[in-house]
């Protein structure tokens, strides 16, 4: 059946690039989770929107499931193809289509990398402000699928704030032009926003109009060493009141150890238990004075033990590497990841409870904490002992995730802040969303994709 379907696809779209070699099936059939054995039917690499439409019409006719694929840098199993699906990669749809100086918008194909879109905006004297460490490999379509956040959410918000319009190919092969770059549009449901964060379950994004903005004022980066977990939010409160923050990122001594082993330079002669990287406006003498005053206040109160402020772009990049290099430095351990969020006001109580829970649950595991603490997003990475079977490790971690999900529910939080639900977080969705919400989402999905062919098994069954 599947062989006949592929033959029909080749006849229908003779110029479509298809990959069926085992190495390609493995490469395109998985994301960064590495927890599922990839087993896609084939890999399609369309070079045009028309080819994407043709693929979707073929899939609808032959009943073949589709897994959309961007850079596959996801961490929740959202791009996994393990059950004979056709992977549709947007990597060839990677062009900048237009720039509108009046609207200050950039229209791009969905397969363009975040970094390439940022560079294109910069060439026009503007910025696309969504940013995170995987910028060089993640695709814009993937950032839309997960409503990606990143390191500057404090100032700019998530991806959803910066998508002025998008084009979606539906499961039936129709091309929808959603919002068309309008600033004001009260003509019914905003389907654009429904697609953002839908993890490819409602269709394939093929094009996006990105809203651009002015470059931020000149900024500096400061790394602070903290004596304890408990002072973290107090430090945030002081810096947020004194400075114009664009980022406030946290990590532990264990995270720093791994980044240093991966090639980064040690920031201090001593090692401290906790660290914060902050970025803030520093365009004039008054702002520079405010930074020093805030640092002195925190040091006098014993909430900061040491610190360094960047004096050049190179030093700023080196300080940022200590935070941005964490995920890459941990990749070799295939960590079990939790990506959670609570309201900033609930963060102190949640942190205390979560730290106690994880300390008791993982006494023999190395746990790496870091995250975008200034927007309520915390990443918890548990590293597998070398002598432990992967299945046993995952089973042990999932038992604790159930407990963590309950703590999040008590604090009104989310089991997934920015990585999506995918396969990994699906069992815990009801700790974040009510049963009524989940059922309504199911109904929306069935209305758009009644045959259930779009990224099946992701988010919910």
Q: Looking at CATH, which topology of the largest domain would you report?
A: Uridine Diphospho-n-acetylenolpyruvylglucosamine Reductase, domain 3
The chain-level mean pLDDT equals: 94
Placed side by side, the strands forming the largest sheet appear as 13-10-12-11-15-16-14
Count of runs of 4 or more consecutive helical residues: 15
Approximately how much beta-strand content do the residues carry? Answer: 15-25%
Fraction of helical residues? 25-40%
| Backbone CA Rg | 23 Å
Number of domains: 4
**What structural class should be given to the helix and strand makeup?**
alpha+beta
Residue ranges: pLDDT <50 for 5 or more in a row?
none
Largest sheet: 7 strands, antiparallel
Which word captures the global form? globular
> Between the first and last Cα atoms, what is the distance in angstroms?
24 Å
How many β-strand runs?
Answer: 16
Question: Which CATH C-level class of the largest domain is it?
Answer: Alpha Beta
The CATH architecture of the largest domain comes to 2-Layer Sandwich
Catalytic activity: (R)-2-hydroxyglutarate + A = 2-oxoglutarate + AH2
Protein name: D-2-hydroxyglutarate dehydrogenase
Enzyme class: oxidoreductase
InterPro entries: FAD-bd_oxidored_4_C, FAD-bd_PCMH, FAD-bd_PCMH-like_sf, FAD-bd_PCMH_sub2, FAD-linked_Oxase-like_C, FAD-oxidored/transferase_4, Oxid_FAD_bind_N, Vanillyl_alc_oxidase_C-sub2
């Amino acid at each position: 059946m599947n062989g006949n379907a592929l033959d029909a696809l080749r006849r229908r779209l003779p110029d479509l690039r298809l990959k069926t070699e085992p190495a390609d099936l493995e490469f395109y059939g998985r994301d960064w989770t590495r927890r599922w054995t990839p087993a896609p039917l084939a890999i399609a690499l369309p070079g045009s929107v028309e080819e994407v439409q043709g693929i979707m019409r073929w899939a609808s006719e032959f009943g073949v499931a589709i897994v959309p694929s961007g850079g596959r840098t996801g961490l929740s199993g959202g791009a996994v193809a393990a059950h004979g699906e056709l992977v549709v990669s947007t990597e060839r749809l990677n062009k900048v289509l237009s720039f509108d100086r009046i609207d200050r918008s950039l229209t791009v194909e969905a397969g363009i990398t975040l970094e390439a879109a940022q560079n294109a905006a910069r060439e026009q004297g503007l910025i696309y402000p969504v940013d995170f460490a995987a910028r060089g490999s993640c695709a814009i379509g993937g950032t839309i699928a997960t409503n990606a956040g990143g390191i500057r959410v404090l100032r700019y918000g998530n991806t959803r704030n910066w998508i002025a319009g998008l084009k979606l190919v539906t499961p039936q092969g129709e091309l929808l032009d959603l919002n068309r770059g309008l600033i004001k549009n009260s003509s019914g449901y905003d389907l654009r926003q429904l697609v953002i964060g839908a993890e490819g379950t409602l269709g394939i994004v093929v094009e996006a109009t990105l809203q651009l903005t002015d470059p931020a004022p000149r900024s500096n980066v400061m790394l602070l060493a903290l004596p304890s977990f408990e002072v973290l939010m107090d430090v945030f409160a002081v810096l947020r009141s004194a400075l114009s923050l664009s980022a406030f990122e946290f990590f532990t001594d264990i995270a720093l150890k791994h980044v240093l082993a991966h090639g980064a330079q040690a920031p201090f002669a001593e090692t401290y238990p906790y660290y914060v990287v902050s970025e803030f406006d520093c365009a004039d003498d008054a702002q520079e004075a405010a930074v020093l005053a805030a640092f002195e206040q925190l040091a006098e109160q014993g909430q900061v033990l040491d610190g360094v402020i960047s004096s050049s772009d190179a030093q700023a990049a080196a300080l940022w590497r200590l935070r941005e290099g964490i995920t890459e430095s941990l990749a070799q351990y295939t960590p079990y990841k939790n990506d959670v969020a609570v309201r900033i006001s609930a963060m102190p109580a949640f942190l205390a409870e979560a730290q106690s829970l994880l300390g008791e649950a993982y006494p023999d595991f190395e746990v790496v904490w870091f995250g975008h603490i200034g927007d309520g997003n915390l990443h918890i990475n548990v590293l597998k002992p070398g002598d432990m079977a992967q299945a046993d490790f995952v089973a042990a971690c999932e038992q604790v995730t159930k407990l963590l999900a309950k703590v999040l529910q008590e604090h009104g939080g989310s089991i997934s802040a920015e990585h999506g639900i995918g396969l990994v977080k699906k069992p815990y969705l009801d700790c974040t969303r009510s049963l009524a919400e989940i059922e309504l989402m199911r109904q929306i999905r069935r209305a758009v994709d009644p045959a259930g062919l779009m990224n099946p098994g992701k988010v919910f069954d």
